[in-house]
Design brief:
Layout: E1 6-8, H1 11-19, E2 26-28, E3 46-48, H2 56-68, E4 74-76, H3 78-84, E5 88-92, H4 102-109, E6 118-122, H5 127-140, H6 144-166, E7 173-179, E8 184-185, H7 190-196, E9 200-201, H8 215-221, E10 225-228, H9 235-246, H10 255-258, E11 262-265, H11 278-289, E12 303-305
Helix pairs in contact: 5-6, 6-11
Length: 308
């Protein structure tokens, strides 16, 4: 097969393509694709259609307004995309507020004259879906064996962690927070990862979208551990929002707060990217759930302990 020109419009898709060994074929990316760092040399073909600055509450209000008016949350640079003439475009159809949607990509290429690119759309809900997506991308790029090998390697790493954690008698309850205002638990692949890490997940169901959570319910459930990893937020940005939770009257009385087991993780780089680094996300979970057993070296860079 001739060397293909690839565009990825989702950070996890970029990571998958690079992990498969095809970074040299990438010709374009989304504005959020930043790993591995070398991909930032590529032209960004998308941009948010709203102001991404501000608090989580302000961002939520802007997105809700756009969705309510049936407006696209992201823009695609259709002219630049056409100029790049990719053979394969990898996008997603899982969440219209997380990245460019499949329909927007299809619209961008609908007027092309001549050969149309192959559009690969990813929509993972569980870890198994992520591994299958890796194989799907590899097949689209003409190297199915690379996909099988990479997926198998990642699954083995996860299985080794799960086996080690399953032997532990203590299983702390864990509240994973994916958005601060409004408060949301973490869904999709996160609940199963909490279980694999030796914890008991309190909010969100495996394979389902992230649920809204009332703060009173969070306080009532008394999690042993609270892990804040908002979608798209690095640690520093989450720490700025942390005061909103601390201001709640019941916050200080929660068990996780009293015992100093509140943690902030980089939700932008890890938990919310459905790609190879979900294995590192699982490692992070084990470090906060069972620090007496697991040490992978992620503390300080990927997660940190938050002051009560």
């Amino acid at each position: 097969m001739p060397s293909q020109r690839i565009v990825t419009l989702l950070p996890s898709a970029t990571e998958i393509v690079c992990a498969l060994g095809f970074e040299d074929r990438l010709v374009g990316r989304s504005h959020e694709c930043d790993y591995p760092p070398s991909v930032t040399r590529l032209p960004a073909l998308t941009a948010p259609a709203f102001d991404v600055a501000g608090t989580s509450a302000e961002i939520d209000a802007r997105v809700r307004e756009m969705v309510g008016r049936a407006l696209s949350v992201y823009r695609v640079d259709a002219a630049k995309l056409a100029e790049l003439r990719p053979d394969v475009i990898v996008t997603q159809s899982q969440c219209d507020v997380c990245a460019v949607s499949m329909s927007e990509v299809e619209e961008a290429v609908s007027q092309w004259i001549g050969a149309r690119p192959t559009i690969v759309s990813l929509a993972p809900r569980r870890l198994e879906d992520v591994w299958k997506d890796i194989e799907t991308v590899a097949t689209a790029l003409g190297a199915p064996e690379r996909g099988v090998e990479l997926a198998d390697r990642l699954k083995l790493r996860c299985a080794a962690i799960e086996k080690r954690a399953s032997a532990l008698s203590e299983r702390p309850s864990v509240a994973c927070i994916e958005w601060i205002e409004p408060l949301m638990g973490a869904g999709n692949w996160i609940p199963e990862m909490v279980a694999m890490a030796g914890g008991v997940n309190l909010f969100g169901k495996s394979g389902e979208h992230s649920p809204y959570v009332e703060f009173d319910d969070l306080a009532r459930r008394e999690p042993d551990i609270a892990l804040l990893a908002p979608c798209g937020f690095p640690i520093e940005r989450t720490m700025k929002e942390f005061a909103r939770l601390q201001s709640k009257p019941a916050w200080a009385g929660m068990k996780a707060v009293r015992e100093g087991r509140v943690f902030v993780a980089d939700g932008n780089q890890y938990f919310n990217r459905s790609g190879p680094r979900l294995v590192e996300s699982l490692e992070i979970l084990t470090e906060v759930v069972h620090p007496e057993v697991f040490r992978f070296g992620h503390e300080g860079s990927a997660w940190r302990r938050a002051a009560g």
